[in-house]
Amino acid sequence: xxxxxxxxxxxxxxxxxxxxxxxxxxxxxxxxxxxxxxxxxxxxxxxxxxxxxxxxxxxxxxxxxxxxxxxxxxxxxxxxxxxxxxxxxxxxxxxxxxxxxxxxxxxxxxxxxxxxxxxxxxxxxxxxxxxxxxxxxxxxxxxxxxxxxxxxxxxxxxxxxxxxxxxxxxxxxxxxxxxxxxxxxxxxxxxxxxxxxxxxxxxxxxxxxxxxxxxxxxxxxxxxxxxxxxxxxxxxxxxxxxxxxxxxxxxxxxxxxxxxxxxxxxxxxxxxxxxxxxxxxxxxxxxxxxxxxxxxxxxxxxxxxxxxxxxxxxxxxxxxxxxxxxxxxxxxxxxxxxxxxxxxxxxxxxxxxxxxxxxxxxxxxxxxxxx
Amino acid sequence: xxxxxxxxxxxxxxxxxxxxxxxxxxxxxxxxxxxxxxxxxxxxxxxxxxxxxxxxxxxxxxxxxxxxxxxxxxxxxxxxxxxxxxxxxxxxxxxxxxxxxxxxxxxxxxxxxxxxxxxxxxxxxx
Lengths: 371, 126
What we know:
The complex is a heterodimer.
Chain A: H1 16-21, E1 25-29, E2 32-37, H2 42-51, E3 54-57, E4 62-67, H3 72-77, E5 92-98, E6 104-113, E7 116-121, H4 126-137, E8 143-145, E9 149-155, H5 159-166, E10 178-183, E11 186-191, E12 200-206, H6 207-219, E13 223-224, H7 227-236, H8 263-268, H9 274-281, E14 287-294, E15 305-307, E16 313-323, E17 328-336, E18 345-350, E19 353-360
Parallel strand pairs in A: 3-13
Antiparallel strand pairs in A: 1-2, 3-9, 4-7, 4-8, 5-6, 6-7, 9-12, 10-11, 11-12, 14-17, 14-19, 15-16, 15-18, 16-17, 18-19
Helix pairs in contact in A: 2-7
Chain B: E1 4-6, E2 11-16, E3 19-24, H1 26-32, E4 35-39, E5 46-47, E6 52-58, E7 62-66, E8 71-76, H2 78-82, H3 86-89, E9 98-102, H4 114-125
Antiparallel strand pairs in B: 1-2, 2-3, 3-9, 4-6, 5-8, 6-7, 8-9
């Protein structure tokens, strides 16, 4: 008797060989072999991004294009709860694919472009997202999940100066806005955005030019930064990681992401899961995602149980690590609604022992976006 | 370093009389990455060969520390608790973890010497 096996070939980004040549340590992530760190290590890479600049390969993420159609905005609004009617050309919005229970299939960045919408999706979700969107929109819409495009993020206070030196005009982009640019005859799309809490850019460009482009950035003093530092940076900035801080069972309101659902959509609804989300907004909310700071150095990892001072279980941690820039242990998690106030004393159970912690405001690290 | 022995769990142990000093190897720190937290056994507690004797955590994950020999904990290195990054910078000297009054010197015999350990790490890497 044998076992049926499905062998999935692990995928590599167009920068894989370059990462390897720079001494990257790889980990399998969402079906891709991705650099978790380079020779500097997570902490130095994190600090360098905050103080100077860092380059991230995020080509594993999905880049979906949906071509314009007179009905597209109306149909997309049924599954994405942001104001696509009033989104401006080249404006980006953080939003979600919601499910019928108000949970989150994925979080995403949607950008209005001249001939449609660009949507950036999480690597682990992109194939499923494609099916969901295709299923919801039907056959009269043209969708394309690009395989021939890479995505890199240049992040940090020096990002603007370095990128402007290569591509004139990027410095005039405002946060969460993008545009087409030309580089050596190639059309590339750049948005001012990121996942670090720093100013920076996400650059979508053809696979065949991503390595030479990365090498030019490196020749200007840019360091490659791995997924390890990407995680500590985003957690310090209070940003959610899909599959950990948010998933199919958490609503955007529970996740403290109400700001991402535009006012008109909150009032009018008309998207999947609206009933649940509306009742959340109207106060039927049993839990909320909060920031959590352990008092000592103890690190509370995902799954750590949270207790009240009376030792009643009140929630769980969804992300936790050491924050190199704040130089302390930081975490996020869900707690029952009575415990969400900043300063509330809670207990975290790590390896069978309870440790004191405080509920705290997010982000842990003040964001430096250029508005 | 001829009196230093190594375990397959990447601990080193240095024996002076019946007092053993234990830490983790350079190779272990390279695999773990930046260490940001360490938890050591309680002073005076008894630990068993191959038993759990603490935790080290990197930014990404927690890993158990095992003791390669049995004994009673007589001292823990407070300086690595205060500054866990010392474990990355000098794992096989200054950043020792704890000292044991060992129970049975014969337990040392099953451990590897430096040459054997280097061979072991090379083989497990390939």
